[in-house]
Specification:
The complex is a heterodimer of chains A (144) and B (243). In chain A, the strands form two sheets. In chain A, strands 4-1-5 form a three-stranded antiparallel sheet, covered by helices on one side. Chain A is elongated. With 144 residues, chain A is α+β, with helices and mostly antiparallel strands. In chain A, β2 and β3 form a beta hairpin. In chain B, 22% of the residues are buried. In chain B, the strands form four sheets. A three-stranded antiparallel sheet of chain B has the order 2-1-3. In chain B, β5 and β6 form a beta hairpin. Chain B has five helices and ten strands. Chain B is flat, with a radius of gyration of 21 Å. With 243 residues, chain B is an alpha+beta fold. Chain B has two domains: 122 residues, no CATH class; 102 residues, no CATH class. In chain B, 25% of the residues lie in helices and 25% in strands. Classes of the chains: A alpha+beta (144), B alpha+beta (243).
Chain lengths: 144, 243
């Protein structure tokens, strides 16, 4: 039996935490054993291809889903201080985020200032959301 | 068998969200056919079956989740088929779900089709084409978590442990791993499922058949270890055909 290494692109599982519709929050590392749940989506024999796929998936996902949908305050998404976050997004050419970090104004800001931005800007903003990995690559054995 | 294109029926990822259903990202692959006609026939049969028991207006928290048509256009869409839509209530909203419950039995088959046709965001199945060489199978460990009463699997996903090119090999590995997991409970076969030996399986049930209590929470379907899922096989694409 031949076993080779492959690279699995996975999406992090999403949990609906509330009783209101459209109440999506990511669910990374929330179990007793600090394990994230993943949904495998595609498999690659080399990491570079997997990373390209991951980038495309992330862009596609972020264009559809607003990370500030309910319960999505800024501090739940990033470990950056609001002022530092603002400085960096302005540096990327985006309109500054609102003074309030609550989900409603942040959601509006994302929809108007970030979601329509070029791919590189979208990804650069998302990279600041270090508390919320959405797509990951897992190295995994592949057999016949 | 040659590497000819095959056709797979997928179910979209609908879930209950407290007051209505919502469509989450992702799909579940259900069945594969040799021809597109067979696959589309199967998908349509499934679509019809779900339509027969689901209120389409309960498939989103607001009208724009249901259709790409703005609501005023949809009103005309219905009137053009001699269907009288609901009037606005005192909050200036239309009670679509209640209207459907009270109206559907009086509609003709073609009028019912018309209602669903206009709600073009409420779809439950589709068909994709793949060559056998373009798919692989991941064995995924379910991550169980104790909730102070029983074990919960989360709403989706797990930890991928291995991948296979052939489904039968992935299934064989899954069975092996399941046996190892169940062996932990040896000698407890006659016990009532309780706490760490009670496993919720709502996530594998038909989302449109899950019961809800008066607060909107799903009624939990809890089983013993004999019927719990510890590993599952997930069909995936090789090389980025996307789900």
């Amino acid at each position: 039996m031949i076993t080779e290494s492959a690279y699995l692109v996975t999406r992090v599982g999403l949990e609906n935490r509330g009783t209101q519709a459209n109440f999506w929050v990511w669910s990374p590392s929330t179990t007793d054993r600090d394990e994230s749940r993943h949904i495998p989506t595609s498999l690659f024999l080399n990491r570079a291809d997997a990373e390209r796929e991951l980038r495309n998936r992330l862009i596609e996902f972020l264009r559809e889903l607003n990370p500030f949908d309910q319960a999505g305050r800024l501090e739940y998404r990033t470990s950056l201080e609001p002022a530092e976050f603002s400085r960096r997004v302005v540096g990327l050419g985006c309109a500054p985020p609102p003074a309030s970090t609550n989900w409603k104004p942040m959601r509006e800001w994302w929809a108007t200032a970030v979601a329509p931005a070029p791919d590189d800007v979208l990804l650069a903003v998302w990279e600041m959301f270090d508390k919320n990995p959405l797509w990951t690559i897992i190295e995994i054995p592949l057999e016949d | 068998m040659a590497d000819e294109v095959r056709f797979t029926v997928r179910r979209f990822n609908w879930r209950w969200a407290g007051t209505c259903f919502v469509r989450a990202p992702g799909e579940h692959r259900l069945a594969t056919f040799d021809t597109a006609d067979e696959a589309h026939a199967d998908a349509w049969r499934r679509e019809q079956e779900v339509r027969g028991r689901v209120n389409p207006f309960a498939c989103g928290p607001a009208f724009h989740y249901l259709s790409t048509m703005p609501e005023p256009i949809y009103l005309d869409w219905l009137r053009d088929a001699d269907i009288t839509p609901p009037k606005q209530d005192s909050t200036a909203k239309r009670p679509w779900a209640a209207w459907w419950d009270s109206t559907k039995t009086g509609l003709t088959e073609s009028q019912i089709f018309r209602v669903w046709e206009g709600l073009n965001r409420v779809r439950f199945f589709d068909v994709i084409a793949r060559r056998p060489s373009q798919v692989a199978y991941a064995v995924v460990r379910i991550v169980w978590e104790y909730n102070d009463n029983w074990m919960e699997p989360g709403e989706e996903g797990g930890v991928p442990v291995q991948a296979f090119r052939k489904r039968e090999n992935a299934e064989a590995q899954r069975v092996l791993l399941e046996e190892v997991e169940r062996a932990r409970f040896a000698g407890r076969e006659d016990e009532e499922p309780s706490h760490y030996s009670a496993f919720e399986r709502n996530r594998w049930n038909d989302p449109f058949q899950v019961e809800h209590d008066e607060r909107g929470f799903s009624v939990d379907d809890v089983v013993g270890f004999q019927n719990a899922v510890f590993y599952e096989v997930v069909e995936i694409d090789i090389g980025g055909n996307s789900e």
